[in-house]
Amino acid sequence: MTLVQAMKLLVLLSVMLTVLSLALRARAGDFFYLFREWRLGLRAVIAMFVIVPIVAIIMADVFDLKGPVKVALVALAFSPVPPLLPRKQAKAGGEASYISGLLVAAALASLVLAPIGLSLIGEIFGLEMQVSRAGMATTLGLTIALPLALGVLGQRVLGDARAGAVSGPLSKVANVLFAVSVLSLLVALAPAVGKLLGDGTIVALVAMSLVGLAAGWFLAGDDRHNRAVLALASAARHPGVAIGIATTSFPDAKLAPAAIILAAVVNTLIAIPFLKRLHKSEV
């Protein structure tokens, strides 16, 4: 197993621990919140899986990016919520029911819409796309469905108080694993990352993130907390799923995973001032 492969597994493990941490402190009914409040759910899908993918396609075309990078951008746009987002959303003041519901709704929407969207961009850019629904379902099942189920079970076995006490340390471990894996991948993929500097990739990633923030903020309704939640969810995506999608079509290309890891860094740099400004306005 190479370093890159090991770090990809570490990214997925950090996702599992983050979702488990969330599930240990959430109510089971929260996971279906956006199905009950379907108007909010529809707005979330439009922000995440319509507006942001359109921006990704436009950016890929405007800068005439290399094939693997085009696929990486669109794979990101159709991937569900990223690993550290539930914690970011909690810091933004999001309600637990909305956060949990968005996690589940985004995963299901991604499973349905990602193959359609990727087939579409294959036609637009003349790229041969191979999207495995089974592979996506396996990844989403391991990183989202399994830890959600374990979290609900953990609450019943441990009780609410103990489960909540375990949640905090798990979240911290997940944060450390994610940071280590992203930094390690940046180092391991440094030559590929270097090729992305100056070709428009960073501008495209910044545009996707900023438009995602704006779309989520304005489509989430009147609740300020929900607006912050959807803004962050629309601006950032699950790197593990995106890498899996992109490398299926370009298994030997390092540009695709390099662009996806670079996106995680760009999103974090944009999310930090967004959160600081949000908290400052509430003081």
Strand content: under 5%
Number of strands: 0
| CATH topological fold name | Na+/H+ antiporter like fold
Mean pLDDT: 86
Q: How would the global form be characterised?
A: globular
Instruction: Specify the structural class.
Output: mainly alpha
CATH top level?
Mainly Alpha
Helix coverage percent of residues? over 70%
Largest sheet: none
Backbone CA Rg: 18 Å
Which second-level CATH architecture applies?
A: Up-down Bundle
The succession of helices and strands, N to C, reads HHHHHHHHHHHHH
Question: Unreliable stretches, pLDDT < 50, 5 or more residues?
Answer: none
Distance between the termini: 49 Å
Could you explain how this protein is built, in words?
This protein is mainly α and 283 residues long. It has a single domain, classed as Na+/H+ antiporter like fold (Up-down Bundle), CATH 1.20.1530. The chain has helices spanning 3-24, 33-36, 38-62, 67-77, 85-91, 96-125, 133-158, 160-188, 190-195, 201-219, 224-235, 239-249, 255-282.
List the helices and strands and how they pair.
Layout: H1 3-24, H2 33-36, H3 38-62, H4 67-77, H5 85-91, H6 96-125, H7 133-158, H8 160-188, H9 190-195, H10 201-219, H11 224-235, H12 239-249, H13 255-282
Helix pairs in contact: 1-7, 1-8, 3-4, 3-6, 3-10, 3-11, 4-6, 4-12, 4-13, 5-11, 6-7, 7-8, 7-12, 10-11, 10-13, 12-13
